[in-house]
C-alpha cells in the first residue's frame, strides 16, 4: 500500500492548496518545537447537563464571572498552528463566534479551522454564517442514534434536532460548505451503538470520528468500560477497522482506534506530550496544556511547554493527544499512510476562494 498511498498523498499536496498549507505548517512546527494542534476554548459556559464534563449547567455558576477575551489573535499568533479546533463549553453561546472564526482564518492564517458543538444552537443559517467566516469543518457530538443521546446530554429533543438538521447540512457541505462530522465518545453505554452511529453517518453522507471517554476531568468512572465489556470492545474495534476498508466515512485512523479501544480496555496511555505537541488556549487567552488539569494555566507558551504533570498522566486517550502523537512519532511509511487516509476522507477540503 505504500506506493499507492504515496502517490495519493503527493497528488493531494500538488492539487490542494489547503493540504499544502497544513503540511507546511506541521513540518515547520515539528522542526521548531511548536504544537501541531490546539483547542481554543472560547467559553466555559454550556447549556447541556452531561455528567462527564467539567462544564455544563451545574458548573456554570463557577464560571459565570470569568472574563471572556474578545480577540484571540495575540494568544494564537506564537503558535503558528496548522489546525485549530474551536470548542468550549458550548462555542455557539458566543454571539461573536463568527468573528472569532474569521480572525483565526484571516488574521492568524490558520489553514484548517473546525468547531465542535453539541448541536442545540446549530441551525442552517448559523452554519452558513460560519462558512462565510471561513470555517472548514463543523463537528457535532452524537453518542447514541436515539433519544438516549438527548437524555445523556440533558437536552430534551436534542437527538431529533440533530437528526433533522444533518441532511440539510450535508447538502450544503456537498455544495462546498464546511464538512460535517459526527463525533462519538465511546463509553460503556454505547459500545453496541457504534455500528448504528457509523451507519447514520454513512446514510447522511457525513464523516464520523471516535474518541475515548475520559474519567480524568471530573473523576467520573461511571462510563468507563469494565473487564466484562472487553469482548464487546473488541467487536466494536473489529467492526470499525473493517468498516474503514469499505468506506471513507470514519476519519479516525486505524492506529488511533486501536489505542482508543486499548485504553478503554484497561491499557494506560503513557508519556503524554501536553503543552508540546498540543495544548489548549482558554477563554481568557491563557495556555492550558490539558483540560483535565484545569487549574494548570500559564501566561506564556514556554511555561506550558515545560509542564511536567502530563508526563506522568495515564488518565486519557483523547484525540487531541493521540493525533499529534501519531503524526510526530510515526515512521515515514506510517505518515504517508496516515496522510493518504486523511486526504481521501477530507478530499473536499480545498474550498473555492481559499487564500493562504
Describe the structure.
The protein has 356 residues and is an alpha/beta fold. The protein has one domain (35-320): Aldolase class I (TIM Barrel). The protein is built from 14 helices and eight strands. It has helices at 2-15, 17-32, 60-63, 73-76, 97-107, 124-133, 148-153, 158-174, 194-204, 230-246, 254-264, 301-305, 319-329, 332-345; strands spanning 37-41, 83-87, 112-117, 137-141, 179-186, 207-212, 278-281, 287-288. Strands 6-5-4-3-2-1-7-8 form an eight-stranded mixed beta sheet. Helix 5 links the parallel strand 2 and strand 3. The longest helix is centred in the middle third of the chain and has 17 residues, at 158-174. The radius of gyration is 19 Å and the shape is globular. It starts with a helix and ends in an 11-residue tail after the last helix.
Distance between the termini: 32 Å
Q: Give the helices and strands as they follow along the chain.
A: HHEHHEHEHEHHEHEHHEEHHH
Count of strand segments: 8
Strand % is 5-15%
* Secondary structure tally, helices: 14
Based on the structure given, which CATH architecture is correct?
Answer: Alpha-Beta Barrel
Q: Please tell me the total number of domains.
A: 1
Overall pLDDT metric: 86
What structural category arises from helix and sheet content? alpha/beta
For the sheet with most strands, the description reads: 8 strands, mixed
The CATH superfamily is identified as: Aldolase class I
Specify the helix fraction band.
40-55%
Q: How is this fold's topology laid out?
A:
Layout: H1 2-15, H2 17-32, E1 37-41, H3 60-63, H4 73-76, E2 83-87, H5 97-107, E3 112-117, H6 124-133, E4 137-141, H7 148-153, H8 158-174, E5 179-186, H9 194-204, E6 207-212, H10 230-246, H11 254-264, E7 278-281, E8 287-288, H12 301-305, H13 319-329, H14 332-345
Parallel strand pairs: 1-2, 1-7, 2-3, 3-4, 4-5, 5-6
Antiparallel strand pairs: 7-8
Amino acid at each position: 500500500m505504500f506506493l499507492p498511498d504515496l502517490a495519493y498523498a503527493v497528488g493531494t499536496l500538488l492539487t490542494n492548496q489547503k493540504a499544502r498549507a497544513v503540511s507546511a505548517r506541521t513540518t515547520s512546527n515539528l522542526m521548531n518545537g511548536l504544537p501541531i494542534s490546539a483547542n481554543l476554548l472560547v467559553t466555559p459556559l454550556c447549556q447541556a447537563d452531561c455528567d462527564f464534563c467539567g462544564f455544563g449547567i451545574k458548573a456554570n455558576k463557577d464560571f459565570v464571572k470569568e472574563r471572556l477575551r474578545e480577540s484571540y489573535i495575540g494568544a494564537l499568533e506564537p503558535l503558528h498552528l496548522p489546525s485549530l479546533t474551536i470548542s468550549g463549553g458550548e462555542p455557539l453561546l458566543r454571539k461573536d463566534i463568527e468573528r472569532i472564526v474569521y480572525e483565526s482564518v484571516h488574521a492568524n492564517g490558520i489553514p484548517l479551522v473546525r468547531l465542535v458543538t453539541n448541536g442545540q444552537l446549530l441551525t442552517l443559517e448559523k452554519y452558513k454564517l460560519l462558512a462565510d467566516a471561513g470555517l472548514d469543518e463543523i463537528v457535532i457530538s452524537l453518542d447514541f442514534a436515539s433519544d438516549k443521546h438527548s437524555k445523556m446530554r440533558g437536552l430534551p429533543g436534542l437527538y431529533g434536532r440533530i437528526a433533522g438538521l444533518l441532511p440539510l447540512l450535508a447538502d450544503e457541505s456537498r455544495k462546498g460548505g464546511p464538512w460535517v462530522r459526527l463525533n462519538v465518545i465511546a463509553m460503556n453505554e454505547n459500545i453496541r451503538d457504534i455500528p448504528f452511529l457509523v451507519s447514520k453517518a454513512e446514510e447522511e453522507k457525513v464523516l464520523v470520528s471516535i474518541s475515548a471517554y475520559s474519567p480524568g476531568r471530573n473523576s467520573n468512572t461511571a462510563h468507563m468500560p469494565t473487564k466484562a465489556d472487553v469482548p464487546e470492545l473488541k467487536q466494536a474495534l473489529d467492526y470499525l477497522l473493517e468498516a474503514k476498508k469499505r468506506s471513507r466515512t470514519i476519519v479516525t485512523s486505524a492506529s488511533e482506534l486501536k489505542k482508543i479501544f486499548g485504553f478503554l480496555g484497561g491499557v494506560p496511555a503513557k508519556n503524554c506530550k501536553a503543552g508540546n505537541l498540543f495544548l489548549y488556549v482558554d477563554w481568557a487567552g491563557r495556555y492550558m496544556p490539558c483540560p483535565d488539569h484545569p487549574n494548570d494555566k500559564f501566561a506564556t507558551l514556554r511555561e506550558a511547554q515545560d509542564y511536567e504533570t502530563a508526563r506522568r498522566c495515564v488518565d486519557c486517550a483523547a484525540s487531541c493527544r493521540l493525533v499529534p502523537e501519531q503524526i510526530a512519532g510515526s515512521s515515514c511509511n506510517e505518515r504517508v499512510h496516515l496522510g493518504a487516509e486523511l486526504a481521501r476522507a477530507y478530499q473536499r477540503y480545498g474550498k473555492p476562494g481559499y487564500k493562504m
